[in-house]
Every structure is written in structure tokens, then in C-alpha cells.
Input
Amino acid sequence: MTKILHPRPLRGSTAPEPRPTSARFPLSPYPTGWYLACWSHELGPGAVRALDCLGRSFAVFRDSQGAPHVIDAHCPHMGANLAKGGKVCDDTLECPFHGWRFDGSGQCAHTPSSSPNPAKIRIPSHPVIEVNGGVFFFFSLAPGASPEYSLPPLEPFNPLPRGWRRPRFFAHTFRTHIQMIAENGFDVLHFTRFHYAAEPPRLDYRADGPRMTNRVAGEIRAPGLRLDLRIQFDLYGPSFLLVTTTEPMAGKYMLTYLPLDPERCLVRGLVYFPRTNNPLLNLIMPPLLPRIVRRNLLDEANIWEHMTYLAKPRLSREERPTRDLRRWYAQFYEA
Ligand code: FES
Ligand SMILES: [Fe+2]
Output
């Protein structure tokens, strides 16, 4: 069961509003959704991390009870960044400048002087869930928006069943808009040019509110052979994707997308898979598979990093999935 901390974010912000769009991407830069703040192993007990993304600065910390929190970084006293030198004291984060303290809900818990009254001081906080080895926070440009969906636990993940390899992590920043990456799995015609597909694969997709499932079937060609390809993509909102492969080999992936600014998107993920009957594969796949996944993404970096978003692309009939994905994705932008 995934527990959501601080389900109601506060109104207002101490940080400047984000820039609206870029010339390349005439879209809102920051869709509403769950974003990966950091991996759980990067946030030990009492740790504080600075996070600059989505047009503002956040402070990520883990309190003495082990609960992770994400609050806006700038202190309402005089604007110091709580994540740059701030310390966790009990269940609060102490500002490095004059020592004001804030709990994970953003409530000011202590000021060293008699005024102002701490009870009347709050800093915006963001709903947090910790799942699949990651600390995720909910962000919306709409003041006071609450999450309408949660993120699923990867099955199997914790604990891993016997014979499964431990997850491997990867990360890369692309100079592109988050939607360009999300659209990619629905772009049927590019699979033959970038992902070794013998033919454009068959897509069977279904949307259900903020969730979209896409089953991809086809063949991949490798030197001297053709292999069946069976992948299921499960999207939860604009920024979280589970990938389950059954052919040519079993594996699970989690991909997350985080806009750093209107033209840069940080892609982070993990991959894990079962031990096979082939000792050679068991030896080479753990270090190799994350590189293959990253390579698959990097192969297209040159396209993503130089393309622009066309509101009215000249799509062919078989590219209908792109149109459908765009229609579904539009729900995550605030009007
Ligand atoms: S700026 Fe944070 S306590 Fe003064
Ligand atoms: Fe691709």
C-alpha cells in the first residue's frame, strides 16, 4: 500500500512563478503529476537535498522518523535556501540563516525570536510518496491541486523473488520537453529506424483517466535472426512509466521524467530482470541492460534535442497513436 504524505499542498509560493513556455515548445512546460525527487538510497536518515526543477527550488529531506518530505526551498523569513546548509532537527528542517524551523507539511515550528508567531507562517509543501526505491512528489501549477491518482508498486520488486537480479539505475538529461519523450512510445514509424524493429509494431492501447496501457507486439531484427518483441507500457500521468517485457527476454523497467526547465528533461529509471538458464547472459546482462536502455534513449537524443513541437503535424493514417497520445496527455496541463 502506497502512503501519500501531506495530501493537500498549500496555496501560494515563496518562489517566482515559472517561465511559461519556450520558443521550441509552445506547450505549458510543467504538466501536473508525480515527479521523482531522488532515489530512496540518496536520502539517508536526516539527509537534505536541494532540487531545482519545474521552474523553482525545492528542499527534500528525511525526518527523524524516516519520512521523506518535499517543501519549497526558500525561507519566508529572508529568502535563504533551506536545502543549502539547512539541517534536520527532529522532524523539522532548520534554515541555515537564522534558524527558523519547518516541518514536512511546511508549517513553521520554531523561530528563535518572539515574533512573528510561527503558527501563522507556512511554506508550500508537496504530497510525497515513497515507492519502488524512489521519493516522488506531486506538483501542479494550479494552486492547491491534489493528486487524483497514486503510483503503483512495481511487481515483483520488494522483495525481489528468488532468481531476480537487483535493480540497476540510470539517468540522462535531454534538451527537450517532457511530452516529446512520452510521445515516443506511440510513434509507430520510428521503431524501424531506431529500435531494430523489422516492421512498424502493432500497438494496442487503452486510456483510463490518468492511466494509459499500451501493448506493443512486433519483431526485432538482429544480425542473422529475428526475435519476437512483446512489451507493455503502463503510463501513470505525464511523468511515470512502467515497462514490462516478455519477449525477447523478461524484464521490468521504470522510467521517470522530470522537467528541469522548459527545454531540459531529466530521465531517470531502473531496470531489473530474472536470472536466465544461460550463464553467459547472467554474467553480461546486469551491466549491459541498463546501457542498452540508455543507448536506446540516446540514439534518439539528436532528434529530441533539435526538434520543435508542431501543434498540427502532418501525420499519416497509421500515426493515429501519436494523435491519441497527445489528446490523452493534454489532461495534465492546467488551462
Ligand atoms: S532566512 Fe531563514 S531563518 Fe532567516
Ligand atoms: Fe524511440
About this structure: The chain has five helices and 18 strands. The two ends are 32 Å apart (CA to CA). The helical segments are 178-183, 191-194, 279-298, 301-304, 320-329.
